[in-house]
Target: 15-hydroxyprostaglandin dehydrogenase [NAD(+)]
Amino acid sequence: MSLNGKTAVVTGAALGIGRAITELLLQQGAKVALLDVNKTASESLMEVLHKQYGRERTLFLNCDVESEEQIKAAFQKAAETFGGIDIVCNNAGVLNEDTWEKTVSVNLMGVIRGSYTALEHMSKLSGGRGGVIINTASLAGLGPLPSCPVYTATKHAVVGFTRAMAAASTASGYGVRFNTLCPGFVRTDLFSSIISNSGRFSHLTDATQQLVEHFGIVDLADVAAAVLEMVTDETKNGEAFLVSAKRKEYVRFASFV
Ligand SMILES: NC(=O)c1ccc[n+]([C@@H]2O[C@H](COP(=O)([O-])OP(=O)(O)OC[C@H]3O[C@@H](n4cnc5c(N)ncnc54)[C@H](O)[C@@H]3O)[C@@H](O)[C@H]2O)c1
Ligand SMILES: CCCCC[C@H](O)/C=C/C=C\C/C=C\C/C=C\CCCC(=O)O
Model:
């Protein structure tokens, strides 16, 4: 399914998984607003994207997802420039067990802030045309990463928040689908920072290495493809897509009702 005529906002778009998602959405025909705090990486990516897709289909907005003011301004600018928003990927994330409050602030509060701001533009109840929101969690949102308890907590929270928002959206008639991306280990800057950023759990590096060997390293292209699948399959709402080197599947959660 082509995304021609669709407009997207991706946070943490300059590098790693966010960059791969951005490039795939562009390849499929969407216009994309790239939100990131890393101005240098964003500007060099924009040069590449301008050459490949022209200047009209991309927009870089310097935006820290920790700031309500910056997020609101960035979404407003994206909506004005492209004429509405159809797809939002709340992807920006950090891993740092030393500065764990920031990890909670970016990974969880940033996703909540991005989701609520997105709804202001996308909900059919507030004049939007509906759409889909994909929140990036992790395999660590489904099971424990022992060297990173706070990171694990934020990612479990993103899974829970997104599932609850999917149900709230259906019950309220927002016309917006919510799904979670749960990648395994991906070779990015965040992955490389594990040893320096595990804080009081740095002695558990070997245990992390064993998990990396168990789950393998997943390709960025497979992670981006999982996002595209959740964006384009209009039957998917409240789902979590697990994408590791060995498994690519929707998660089956226990049902208590
Ligand atoms: N790399 C992995 O193994 C892995 C696995 C599962 C999930 N994830 C998740 O995927 C997402 C992307 O991670 P990545 O591996 O691509 O990391 P990365 O470090 O390569 O890229 C993260 C991007 O987010 C941006 N960013 C960080 N803080 C920000 C903020 N406050 N506001 C706006 N932008 C901000 C960075 O500048 C960077 O461009 C994160 O949510 C991460 O937790 C990563
Ligand atoms: C080493 C760098 C840190 C990367 C963090 C990133 O988000 C990736 C995490 C990958 C794996 C988390 C580790 C363990 C999860 C444990 C169990 C998951 C069980 C899922 C299932 O079988 O359904």
Remarks:
- Residues 8 and 46 are 15 Å apart (CA to CA).
- Residues 149-172 form the longest helix (24 residues).
- The pocket of LKEAN3GG (ligand 2) is lined by residues 95, 138-140, 142-145, 184-185, 191, 194, 208, 211, 215 (CB under 6 Å).
- The mean pLDDT is 98.
